[in-house]
Amino acid sequence: MKGWTGKILRVNLKNNKCTVEKLNEDIAKKYIGGRGIGSKMLLDEIDPKVDPLSPENKMFILTGPLTGTGSPCGARFMVITKSPQTGTIACSNSGGYWGPELKAAGYDGIILEGKADKPKYLWINNDKIELRDAGELWGMDTHETTRQVKAKTDARAKVACIGPAGEKLVLMAAIMNDLNRSAARSGVGAVMGSKNLKAIAVRGTKGFSVADGFRDVNVEISNLFKGDVAKGYGYFGTSMAVDYCNAVGIFPTNNYREGVFAGAPNINGQAIRDKILVRKRSCHGCVLGCARVTRVKEQGFEGSGEGPEYETIYAFGSTCKIDNINAVAKANYICNELGMDSISVGVTIATAMELYELGLIKEKDVGMELKFGDAKAMVELTRKTGLREGFGDLLALGSYRLAEKYGRPELSMTSKKMEISAYDPRGSKGMALTYSTNPRGGDHTRGATAFCEIFGIPKKVKSKIIEGKAELAMELQNLNAAIDSTGVCMFATVVVQHEPFVKLLSAATGLNFTMDDYVKAGERVWNVERLFNVKAGFSRKDDSLPPRILREPLSDGPAKGETVDLETMLDQYYKLRGWDNNGIPTEEKLKGLGIK
Amino acid sequence: MAKVIHFRPDKCTSCKRCETACSHKYFNVFTSFYSKIKCVAFDEEHLYYPATCFQCDNPPCLPVCPTEAITKDPETGIVRIDEEKCTGCGACMEECPVKHIFPYDEFGHAIKCDYCNGNPECVLFCRDRAIEWREITPEEKTEREKLFQNLGDKLREVKEL
Questions:
Q1: Which of A27, A490, A532, B15 is the most interior residue, by most CB within 10 Å?
Q2: Cβ of B154 under 8 Å from any chain A Cβ?
């Protein structure tokens, strides 16, 4: 096989057994790689009703055929498992250099099974695979773990690991790789922690090959990355979205009660440049360089690392009503070091702030005051969450379980118990479908309609109407599922859309993928993910949004007065998808996609 | 003055496209191991050094080669290793202060950058213009020597890149 290495490493943590399996060529063609192959394996190999933190859950870490090829933005790998946060499929994407290294070692992916009897780390040195004792590493943050593992293996090894949050089963725990890159959402770090696996170090010197002719296609497509959007990613990173979203009134503020944040100019892309930016950084093969290497000097918030991204700015900034970029960056560093998803942690703290405002959470519960806008409290609680210290032990369960404990689950800004992202669906209606039908719960990275509705990329559509949004959501979801399966970063498609990557996919694999095959693969992946969730007990009732978004009109700004008619949108969407009225894929649909 | 691959570390974003370009061109596979350009990152200090062999004026690797396999082209300045003569003893690798001579097979045979004989593939793939193929000014040459020194200092304890 070309593009793919054709091999998957299966590691049984319980009995210390490693085997190398052939990647099924049919599966590879139908599901491409990464998210696609991982989801298919999850559906085939685990009982969807399994307890996510039990040894019976498995973890699939998959690269795509374009990962590590020097294809524009071809750095990605995907972690797929069952989520302890949502109970649905968990699926988290990361860049950096770890995925390409895994392929250079000769593997498209790793399957982790069972649970180690005590803390271990996995050392993949080409064909030599070892499960080693990680007793000394347990308790260390992700940066120290990375340093130590490199010292114990090879200074050139790439390391993916969990921090204390993953060890302590924080439901929002991430897997961090190459220090500050993260497979963050849906609690994949907790699953790794539940398996007693602290880190996976990889050194790959064998390399892998692609089909002839790939190089010229790559040169041609690399040259397409020009223009304002590409430049914006390099100049501002994702934080360029702050001003856009704030201007149209969908920048979630005050735990999603407002859509305009007066403090936005203090936490936008320019603020990052002016106050904390050291330089920009790229993942492997990237032609955009959106990562922000930053340093904070303000006393109390000192630190250095990467971020914040747009979503993190919302989570620790606007929705907590904090306009101090130093504090936002500090909370981001803590998330990276303790190994947590910054979106979920920030939104959970905002929920706690509202419960505090209502007098439901008391100062003595938290051990400090917890008013909106209190940057110090926010940063301190981020740390406590990662370590499950004091009130952090409760925050570690995420926003939904926190609000539920105080009898007000509706104050949690979640869908399927996952914290939703920074595009308010009231002013960007398609996002209602993006969040509510996303297989991994409330999240924007599975076909965000806001790119069209707010940024006009690749086409401008009206943001406050629901007409056409089911079609738009479905189209973007399928495309996104496909790009997530290739090993390429979705940001690349924001700049040049998808056709160039269909070409690159064909060039790398030597197979003739058409745009049709690509979209069909995306649709197949989406339905496989849905099917897993259906078998886990999810249906229409779970495709929900916070009542605030459905019933409380925005009080101010350009999206003032707006709510969302989700039920009508779901009716249209299910019909288009070929699912029944309860959101279950029909036999006919599954058969047509070759899933059954 | 002959053209060189001019290194601009401040422009580098550590994307490694130079590395994939090199290993793909010469070995038809992707791995930084086979790349003759290595972008060396010092993460703690947020420093990235995209560098190949500097093709030194007085290459320290040259005199230590017991088989006289290493030569410097007086016209282009390119330092080459004769594959036939190389015995894989590793003396040149040890001598290079910036560790930019690499073992590539089980016999320890050495490879290094030869500027692709005047058409460097890595430069074509660099999007940040952190490496450029051009003549450099005397000031830039001084900078280049400083960079060599600096990188050599940082890599003193490192055995292999």
A1: B15
A2: no
